[in-house]
Specification:
about 20% strand, binds adenosine-5'-triphosphate, alpha/beta, 15 strands, binds magnesium ion, elongated, nine-stranded mixed sheet, about 40% helix, six-stranded mixed sheet
Length: about 400
């Protein structure tokens, strides 16, 4: 049996110049954290490739599956280790890839010689190995334009490797390489996608969820935690801060004009989320808002919401149509959970005719009827943290 491992390629990090080792180390750390608990074996990095080699090759599929959710990886593949000898490489490639090659017709072979001391050039290696495979498998024809599989041979310092069928990685930047942010996570479709898009750029997330018991019940809470669990595959050790929001909502409803309820509520959410962010070292807030989607997401409303935030508010889905957001939600696996029925704290307190063009001065005037500091303090003191 040939020795097997997972070869991991990463993309954008390579452009990082002098900071590159920092990004590479973050990536290796995240890869280690994503491996199954049962993993025993070695992990090392050389020439813009990371090698994950489990003692037990049976767990390679599971490793690949988990690593497709690790940001910073552009592609990954199961590879077979071969000695750096052309005859051994030919035979090894035929043995290793027989299950795949016996089931297809069109293939081509490519080679990359990272070790320039190896006597054959890349085209020569490809020709030798490709020719041998063609002779071994009578079903195969060479098709350089439209192959079903590309057999890749890489000759590196220590060994040669052969593989075919690369799996696409999650792309982006290693989680934690770009600071930390607090996601306002509702039970809807948009905010999990916004969180995913932010984490993809290397920003580690925690979350706040505003919970209006008894207006929203355990089911709504469970739903948000299920969404957070799905996101935690991309953002491990995901802390969800569940903020008791009922008092604040009742106070707004009692003391502020009906058409301003939503916008004032959103400003309170921002204030509370910012407190959580500051306490946890997060530098920005993230929401799932998209221009014009609902009354509180007009440009005027977003401006009034932002006026209260003391840190940047990221809205990665701001310019996306619902359909585009849904496509990503399906791809990351949150959609089916997001569309489960549930009560949302916002829908329960939604005014019939919300103000779509709120004015900051008027909103601030209405907010004087509230003891904002106390509402924020009480809510933050009542937070329950759930780690996913
Ligand atoms: P989503 O599909 O993400 O729920 P939405 O279109 O329903 O978004 P809103 O309900 O207006 O829009 O919420 C806008 C954003 O505010 C959400 O994307 C989310 O970031 C945040 N948000 C709304 N409700 C809550 C909540 N209960 N807890 C935490 N964040 C919330
Ligand atoms: Mg919502």
């Amino acid at each position: 049996m040939l020795q097997q491992l997972v070869l991991i390629k990463y993309g954008e990090i390579i452009l990082k110049g002098l900071n590159r080792p920092i990004f590479e180390e973050a990536l290796v750390k995240n890869i280690k954290a994503a491996l199954p608990d049962s993993f025993k074996g070695s992990i090392h990095r050389a020439q813009a490739t990371i090698y994950v080699e489990p003692d037990d090759p049976e767990i390679i599929d599971e490793i690949i599956d988990r690593l497709t959710k690790v940001f910073g990886i552009t592609s990954l593949t199961r590879a077979f280790v071969l000695p750096k000898d052309i005859e051994a490489m030919k035979k090894g490639a035929a043995e290793a890839l027989a299950p795949v090659l016996s089931g297809i017709r069109r293939f081509k072979a490519e080679a990359k010689r990272a070790d320039k001391k190896f006597p054959l050039t890349s085209p020569e290696i490809a020709r030798e190995v490709g020719g041998y495979l063609h002779d071994c498998f009578s079903n195969l024809t060479v098709d350089v334009v439209n192959p079903e599989e590309v057999v890749m041979i890489e000759v590196r310092e220590q060994n040669a490797y052969v593989y075919c069928g690369r799996v696409k990685g999650a792309g982006g930047m290693p989680l934690g390489s770009n600071s930390k942010a607090t996601l306002l996570l509702s039970g809807g479709i948009d905010s999990p996608v916004a969180g995913y898009m932010t984490a993809k750029r290397g920003v580690r997330l925690n979350a706040v969820h505003f919970f209006s018991y008894p207006y929203t019940g355990e089911r709504a809470r469970d739903k948000v935690l299920s969404l957070a669990k799905i996101l935690s595959a991309y953002n491990p050790r995901f802390d969800v801060h569940i903020v008791p929001f009922t008092e604040a909502q009742l106070a707004i409803k009692k003391n502020c004009p009906e058409e301003q309820l939503t916008i004032i509520m959103r400003r309170l959410m921002m204030r509370m989320a910012e407190q959580v962010a500051r306490k946890t070292g997060a530098r920005a807030l993230v929401t799932g808002e998209s221009i014009g989607q609902v009354a509180s997401q007009t440009v005027e409303a977003l401006a009034v919401t932002d006026a209260v935030a003391g840190m940047p508010v990221f809205r990665p889905v701001i310019g996306m149509d619902k359909e585009e957001i849904v496509t990503i939600a399906r791809q990351i696996g949150t959609f089916e959970t997001s569309i489960l029925p549930y009560e949302d704290c916002c829908t329960i307190f939604t005014p019939k005719h919300p103000n779509t063009k709120p004015r900051l001065d008027k909103i601030e005037l209405s907010e004087r009827n509230l003891d904002i500091d106390k509402l924020v303090e009480d809510a933050v003191n009542g937070i329950e943290i759930v780690r996913l």
